Amino acid sequence: MRRAFITLTVAALFLLHGFASAEDLVFSRFESYLESLRTQTGIPGLAAAVVGKSDVLWEGASGMQDVDRSLPMRLDTPVHIDGLTEAFSATLVLRCVEEGRLSLDERIGDFSAEAADPDLTVRQVLTYVSGPAANPVYAYRPDRLQPLTEAVRRCTDHSFRETLANLFDWLAMVDAVPGPDVLTLVPPPAPPAESVLASDLARYAQTLARLSLPYAVSATKRPTVSQYSATTLTPTSGVIATVRDLEQFDIALQNGTLLQSDTLAAAWRAPVAVTNGTTNSVINSTLTSAVTSPKLPPHGMGWFVQTYKGEPVVWQFGASDNGSSSMMVLLPARSLTLILVANSTGLVKSFDLPNGDISASPFGQLFLQMFVR
Amino acid sequence: MWCGVAVLTLAVLAVTPAPAFAEWQLKPFAGVTFGGATDLVGDLDQAVPSVHPVAGANLAWLGNIFGAEGDVGYSFGFFEPHGNTANALVLNSHLTTFTGNVIVAMPRRLTEYTLRPYLVAGGGLMRASTNTKSQIFELANTFGAMDIGGGVTGFVSKNFGYTWDIRYFTNVNSAVDPGLSLVGTSGKLKFWRATMAMTFRN
Questions:
Q1: A246 Cβ neighbours under 8 A, 6+ residues apart
Q2: Could you report the per-residue pLDDT of B2-36, keeping only the tens digit for each?
Q3: B2-201 has CATH 2.40.160.20 classification
Q4: Checking CA distances to A194, which of A62, A66, A250, B32 falls within 20 to 30 Å?
Q5: At A304, phi and psi to the nearest 5?
Q6: B184: contact with A, CB 8 A cutoff
Q7: Contacts of residue B46 in chain A, CB cutoff 8 Å?
Q8: Inter-chain contact B182–A362, Cβ cutoff 8 Å?
C-alpha cells in the first residue's frame, strides 16, 4: 500500500513537472518569437504579458525605454496606451448601463450639443456603426465617442477623468495616469479630500517622470526621439499605463469584478439588430448572436471582435502618430490575454487594424498561431 | 509574368537557328549571396543580409553579341544565422531562383584572347522556404523574380574556361498574407549573388 502510494506520488510529480515544462517551453518560444518581431520591426522597447483568468502566466520586457541612456524597458515603464483608452471608457459606460443610470439607446446628441452625429446612440458610437439598425455601416471614427465623457459625468457625478482615476485606484493600477495633462489641471477647491486628482497628483508626477521616451523609427530601423500624440484625456486616447496596470485591468475584466458576464458577452459581440425587439437584458436589447449576419461590423462595445479558426478573439489597439503603440488580444474561450506596449508605432503601423483583423499584425498573428491550435 | 519571360527566353533559345559563330555554354557555379533585405516576417533570425552559400548551373546560348540563358541557383541556409545557432528560430531554409535572361556581350571577335564581359537581365521565379521551431511564420512562398547583373568569361582552352558573375535579384510580386510582412501585405525580398563558374562550351 505504502509503495503504491509512493509510486503514484512520484508519477504525479513527473506528470506535473512535464506539464510545467511544456508550458515553460511554450512561453520560452513565444518570448523568442516576440523578441524577433521586436527586432525586425525596430521597436526600441517592448513590454509584454500573457494573462490567465486570475493571474499572470508570463511577462517580459526587452529593449530600451531610453536608447541614448541605455535605460532598459521594464514591466513598470509607463507609456501612452492611446486607443486602448477606449476599453476603459467602454467599461465606465457599461457599468453605468448596468446600474441603470444610462441607456445604450440614448442619443449621443443629448450629451453634447457639439456631437458630430447627434442622432447616433451610445451603442452606435461604441460599436462604430451608423445607418439603419438592420444594416449597420461600420466606420472607424474615434472622434464620435467624445460625448461619452459627459455621459459618464452625468452617471457618476464626477468628471470623466476623475471617474477613470477612481477606477485606476480601485484596480490598484498604481502607475496609470488619466491623461498626460493631469498635472497642469488646477485641482478643484476645498474640500481637498474629495478630489481624487488632488490626492493623486504627486503619484502621477512620479509616474510621468518615469515615462518611456517615444521613438520614431526609420526604414533602416534607426530610432529617433519623437513626441507622444495625446495631449489630453479623451474617451479614445490619453491614458498612460504600464503592462502591470493592464494586467490588473484584464484580470478584473475576466473575473467579473468590473462587469457582469452578460454585459461582457454583449460588449464582445458584433452589433446586429433584432427584428422582433425582444429584450432579455438592458445590455442585450438590440444585440443578437453574431452568426446571424454574413458580414458583421468588426467592433463590439469598446473592443474589436472577430473569429480565428472558429474561436472568438476580442482585441483593441492603440497607436500614436509616431511614438507609441499598444495592443490587448483576448481569447475569452481560453481565458488568455496578450498585452503589449511599445515606445514606437511598430506594433500596429502599416497593418490597417481599424479594418478589424488583428492577425494582420505579426504580433497578433504570433499570439494566435501560438495559442490557438 | 516573370515566369513567362523565363519560358519565352528558353523557347527563343531553343528555336533560334544558331549563327555560325554561336556557342552553347554550360556553367556550373558556386558562390555567395549577400546584401539581402526583406520585409518578410519569416526572416526570424534576420539572416537575409548575411553572406550565404549558393550553387547552381547556367545554360547559355551566345551569339556574337546577343544571347539568352537559363539560370538555376540554390542558396541553402538563406534564412539561417551564422555562429551560435542554439537560440535561432529558423531550423533550416533555402532560397531557389529560376530565371531566364537576355545576354548582351562584347563581340566575340574583340575578346578572342581576353576576358569577355557581358550583361544579363531577365526574370523568372524565386522560391523561399523555411522550417521554424514552432512552425510559426514559416515560409513556403513562390514569387515572381527579376534579376540584373553582369560578369566576365575567360577561356583557358578551346572548350573550357571560367566565369565570374554578379547579379541582383528581387521579387516582383511580393504579395503575402496579412500578418506575414512587416509592412502590411507586401514582402519584398532582394539580394546580391556573386559566383564563380567553370565554363564549358561546344
A1: A49, A81, A84, A173, A328, A339, A341
A2: 556 555 555 555 555 555 578 999 999 999 999 99
A3: yes
A4: A250
A5: -75, 150
A6: yes
A7: 36, 39-40
A8: yes
